[in-house]
Amino acid sequence: GLRFLRHVERTAVLLHLVDVSEAALEPPAAALKAVLGELAAYSPRLLQRPQLLAASKVDVVYRPHLEEAREEALRRGWKFFPISAVTGQGLPELVGCLCELVEEHRKGSGFPESGERVVYAYDPRRERGFRVVREEGYYRVLGEAVEGLVRRLDLERPQALAYVQSRLRRMGVEEELLRQGAREGDTVVIGDYVFDFLPES
After folding, report:
1. Could you list the residue range(s) of the whole structural domain that residue 21 is in?
2. Distance between CA 38 and CA 197 in Å, rounded?
3. Residue 49: is it exposed, middle or buried by C-beta count within 10 angstroms (0-12/13-18/19+)?
4. Distance CA 54, CA 82 (A)
């Protein structure tokens, strides 16, 4: 909306984030076209700012989406970063590039130097925080990351369900369930959803 676009006016760099998993709601090119169209309609000057493209969820990548995103970045002359919030892949490089571009913008705009530099380090382990509790007749998985994951997606869609299963596996949920004695067919509860435990191995 307009409130968001007014906020974008204050940014030095535009980072576009596209979902390259099979559960993505739309292909990267279509998603970019929609966002760039809104930016251009609001203020064409926004498109003159440095722009980057990050391909998210490469831990469960759908290759055609990844290649489409890469081609879009190449065509537009943008730097391209495949990233994963689950594994941390590509995040240090992306953050480093953003810091450099923002620093260049500050120097060019005469923004006063504070003499103090703050570095924020990304730790993917914080997003993987969860715990498994053994209840009477089932296992409950607790944690904002896992509960938010199942809450955000329509698990009636096979693609979304497959994505959630893969993501939970990479987060270590399956490993922890096995460690606590869960067997194939056991009931697992995450938030308001009930699953049958079907370990990959």
Report:
1. 2-109
2. 43
3. middle
4. 6
